[in-house]
Specification:
Blueprint: E1 2-5, H1 7-20, H2 24-38, E2 45-49, H3 53-67, E3 72-76, H4 83-94, E4 98-101, E5 113-117, H5 129-140, E6 144-148, E7 170-174, E8 177-178, H6 186-189, E9 192-196, E10 207-209, E11 223-227, H7 228-234, H8 239-244, H9 246-257, E12 260-264, E13 268-273, E14 276-281
Parallel strand pairs: 1-8, 2-3, 2-5, 3-4, 5-6, 6-7, 7-9, 10-14, 11-12
Antiparallel strand pairs: 1-10, 12-13, 13-14
Helix pairs in contact: 2-3, 3-4
Length: 287
């Protein structure tokens, strides 16, 4: 079983690893290498980069592509960079990688692949109008889309997309799967899903990903399988609270009723067995 963790745990584990064993710059390079190894980059590639470390992963990926003679163009949403992102961005410029600013009017026609490195798992809340427009431009494109770490616009905590997220053909999670990749709106936006281990030392284990075959023991006596909408209706939970904190709400009902709940989000499932929480997804890509 693979680990599924919260964004907070991922952030703290990342910081611990950087402080004790692996530099942030090296982790960024490993993340980019993991993305490169996860997909067949053929044709013209547009890499859309935000101002944080998710954008930095895109710059590091562009350098890897340049070293292999693959045509890539950087589309930056901001003039700002993280420290490590700036390092890889400068390397890209030295190697002749194309560099453009982009906005909600940018046309991505003519590109075969778009790599989404705009917003990472730290994003939550509601997108600004200009960011919503940019994401809609990506979604209108005929290109294949690879999202790095998580689809931009999705909350890494609860999978909410307010109002929209990048729709990917493949999402490459970095380090560990995050809870938001399986909840709420996530199955509507994530095509296939893979995680790459880059050597982050996990501070604590929280939840686990199980296969479809491993799901059967949770279905039967004193268990209930139902859609997320049906759970909300039948157990009279506050709809907004359920959307914001689905694990907490289902776990509380499981503890009170003694039931095992299998809550279906349409392609991924939240399984709560009183004190244990699991996830299962039809979107996991096996390599």
């Amino acid at each position: 079983m693979e680990n599924v963790i919260t964004v907070k745990n991922m952030r703290e584990s990342d910081e611990f690893t950087i402080n004790t064993s692996v530099s942030s710059r090296e982790l960024m390079r490993r993340a980019a290498q993991g993305v490169y190894d996860s997909y067949d980059f053929v044709g013209r590639v547009a890499i859309v980069c935000g101002s944080g470390n998710n954008g930095g992963d895109g710059y590091a990926l562009a350098e890897i592509l340049a070293d292999r003679g693959i045509s890539a163009t950087l589309f930056r949403v901001s003039e700002k960079f993280s420290d490590d992102g700036l390092y890889y961005y400068k390397n890209c410029l030295k190697k002749g990688v194309g560099d453009l600013l982009c906005d909600e009017f940018t046309d991505f026609g003519g590109y075969d692949i778009i790599v989404d490195c705009i917003l990472g798992t730290g994003f939550s809340g509601t997108l600004r109008d200009d960011m919503t427009g940019l994401i809609e431009q990506i979604n209108r494109s005929s290109a294949r889309v690879v999202s790095v770490d998580i689809n931009s616009g999705l909350s890494g905590s609860n999978g909410l997309a307010l109002p929209v997220a990048v729709r990917s053909d493949l999402t490459v999670s970095i380090g560990c799967f995050k809870t938001g990749m399986f909840l709420n709106d996530a199955p509507r936006y994530i095509g296939e899903l893979k995680n790459v281990d880059i050597g982050i030392k996990l501070l604590k284990k929280q939840y686990y990903l199980i296969t479809a075959d491993e799901l059967s023991p949770f279905v039967g006596y004193q268990s209930e399988s139902l859609s997320a909408d049906r759970f909300s209706l039948e157990y009279a939970v506050d709809e907004e609270e359920f959307r914001r904190s689905p694990i907490k709400v289902v776990a509380a009902e499981s503890a009170e009723s003694g039931k095992v709940f299998v809550v279906d989000y349409g392609g991924s499932k939240l399984i709560v067995d009183q004190s244990y929480v699991y996830f299962q997804s039809d979107r996991i890509k096996l390599f």
